[in-house]
Design goal:
single chain, mainly alpha, two-stranded antiparallel ribbon, 2 strands
């Protein structure tokens, strides 16, 4: 290929990209939502409508998926809410383990671990040294996240396509080994990130452990996911730079929060790496320019 062929090649590839974009837009923006709506409304109508809870008169009084403020002692209490159990403003506290507000509260809807632990022990007749579960005295994330299975499928969908592009890179360059090397490097970085974040988040926060008598960092995490799924989501989504999350990264430990931040700063996602390397491929291998071509 010479430099004279470049305009025609670019025009041809641009047209292919436009057609692929249209097809993907139709599939992902029309067909997939329509199929999902039909299946959910017919097979899971209650869940699709929001798992609404009704009183004896049939009036909607809440949702089984959203925590509510139960103050009477005969009811099981929900986890503390950083948003005052307001579903329209559902969010985590974004309070990190080194922030004094984690124990003392923020002066608003979040009272702090010390107050929650004291109330829990008092209402249940427990001694001052009785260990409490971490999730009972810390606020959750949004409270509106999917089930663990749906969460895992979402993470798989985020990771599988960009990771497959390393194979495409090997095909484009004619050197499949290069694609596998790139894939292996990214897998190694991913595994290291998951391992480091899991260890950091599993050890707990000393200041909280002294108050509740047990370990674990559940501030900003959903009980349905726990530490493992929250960590996996943080690493996968920061690798893919999707902007999605299922836990409050600001509430992670210093080391646990550093990994997603480094991922986002380095942009070491499969898709980003493929774009950079394929650009180099087009300038050095695919087009194969020589001095006499220019």
């Amino acid at each position: 290929m010479t430099s004279d062929d470049l305009p025609g090649v670019l025009a041809s590839e641009t047209w292919v990209a436009v057609r692929l974009t249209g097809v993907l837009l139709l599939i992902a923006g029309v067909v997939y939502p329509l199929v999902l709506w039909l299946v959910s409304s017919s097979a899971f109508s209650g869940q699709a409508e929001g798992s609404l809870a009704h009183d004896a008169a049939g009036h909607v009084v809440g949702s089984a998926m959203i925590g509510q403020a139960f103050a009477r002692p005969e009811y099981f209490h929900s986890r503390p809410s950083a948003a005052g159990y307001d579903a329209s403003n559902s969010s985590g506290s974004n309070i990190g383990p080194t922030n004094p507000q984690l124990l003392a509260g923020n002066g608003g809807s979040y009272a702090g671990v010390t107050a929650y632990a004291s109330t829990d022990r008092h209402e249940n007749g427990l001694g001052p040294n009785r260990a409490l579960p971490s999730d009972g005295v810390t606020a959750s994330g949004s409270g509106l996240d999917p089930t663990p299975l749906a969460n895992f499928i979402e993470l798989l969908a985020i990771a599988v396509l960009p990771a497959a592009l390393t194979h495409t890179f090997g095909q484009m360059t004619g050197h499949r080994r290069d694609g596998w090397i790139l894939y292996a490097a990214m897998v190694a970085l991913f595994v290291a990130g998951v391992a480091a974040t899991t260890i950091a988040e599993s050890k707990g926060v000393p200041s909280v452990s002294r108050v509740i008598g047990s370990s674990g960092v559940m501030e900003g995490k959903e009980v349905r996911f726990g530490v493992p799924s929250s960590v996996l989501a943080a690493v996968v989504t920061s690798n893919g730079a999707t902007g999605s999350y299922n836990a409050m990264h600001d509430s992670f430990t210093p080391l646990g929060g550093m990994i997603p931040l480094v991922n986002m700063l380095l942009e070491k996602s499969p898709s980003a790496a493929w774009v950079l390397d394929s650009s180099a491929c087009c300038s050095s291998r695919c087009l194969r320019y020589s001095p006499r071509d220019s």
